[in-house]
Amino acid sequence: MxxxxxxxxxxxATGLFTCAATGAIIPVLRRANILDHPNERSSHSxxxxxxxxxxxxGVLLLAWLTLSRTGSVASGIVGISVAAAALAVVCxxxxxxxVSPMLRLLAQGAAVTVxxxxxxxxxxxxxxxxxxxxxIGLGLLWVWWINLFNFMDGIDGLAGSEAAAIxxxxxxxxxxxxxxxxxxxxxxxxxxxxxxxxxxxxxxPARIFLGDVGSAPLGCLLGLLLLDLAGGGxx
Length: 235
Hints:
Layout lengths: L1 H30 L3 E2 L11 E2 L3 H17 L6 H22 L3 H16 L5 H4 L3 H24 L5 H18 L6 H21 L9 H20 L4
Antiparallel strand pairs: 1-2
Helix pairs in contact: 1-2, 1-8, 2-3, 2-8, 2-9, 3-4, 3-9, 4-6, 6-9, 7-8, 7-9
C-alpha cells in the first residue's frame, strides 16, 4: 500500500512540474520562431512550437536523479540520465540548425552504449563472444527504437500517449504478480507523470511538440526501461 502511494505521489509531482514547465516554454519557443511546420504526415495545419522536450526530459531526468540520490532506485540510472542529457544537447542543436545524420547516429550510439552497461545483465553476458554479439544486437535494437519513437513526434498526442501507455504497462508489470519491483514502479511512475503533463499541451490541437530534443532522449529512456523488463525475464 505504501509503495503504491509513493508511486502515485511521484507520478503526480512529475506531471505537475512537466505541465508547468511545458506551458512556460511555449511562448519562449514561439518568440524565438522555433516552430514545427506542417508536412504530409502532420495532423496540425499551422506552425507549432517545437522543443517541449526541454521541459519533459529536464523534469524526467531531475526526477530520476532525485530518486537515485535518495537511494530509491539503482545508481546506474545516473549513467543513462547523463547519456540522455548529452543526446538531448545534440538533438537540440539539430532542432535549431540541423546536424548530419552521421552525428545523430553517433550520439544515439554513444547514449545506447552507456545505457547497455547500465543494464543489470550487461556484466553477466559480457563474458565471451556470444555475449558480445548479444550486446551488439541489443544496441542495434535500441537505436532502431530511438528512431522509431522519434518518428512519432509531429502528430498531435502520439508520442506522449505512447510514452504514457508504455509507462502504465510497465507499472502493471512492476506492481502485479511475482515480478513486483519497487524501483521499476517508481521509474514507470515518473514516465507516466511526465508524459501526461506534456500531453496537456500536446493533445489535439497540439500547442507544442517535443522536437528531436525530446523525442530521441525519451525513446532512449523508454528503451532502457523496456530492455530492463526483458532482461528480467518479461520478454
